[in-house]
Amino acid sequence: MPCPCGRGIRYSDCCGRLLDGGVASRPEELMRSRYTAFVLRDTAYLLRTWHPSSRPASLDLDPGTRWTGLEVLRTTGGGFLHTEGTVEFRAHYTESGSADVLHEHSRFVREDGVWLYLDATGGR
Predict the structure, then answer these.
(1) Which residue in 5, 61, 83, 108 has its CB near the most CB atoms, within 10 A?
(2) 3-class DSSP state for residue 17?
(3) pLDDT mean over 95-112
């Protein structure tokens, strides 16, 4: 099965390995895996990859939202020696039969060698 993140490769070779306990090597990889977690409704993964300073106590995903595509627009930082990075993206979805797009700039930080989602600007 192709990965929901849109990279065009098998889920097991892409985001599946991260959702199964692997560690992202850069912010874009983490963001794509988090998008996939939204598609699959894997709240445990979303919470596990969220920085403790901004992580909610729980997540309640809307069952009426269906994620339909991802476009990565731009990335900054996130290299081997970086501790911060950003990803700008558009996530397409339908809700109650209407198509819409979430345009966001997400910030990521690396702590103890692990990339974590910190927060975002932008929105619907």
Answers:
(1) 108
(2) helix
(3) 95
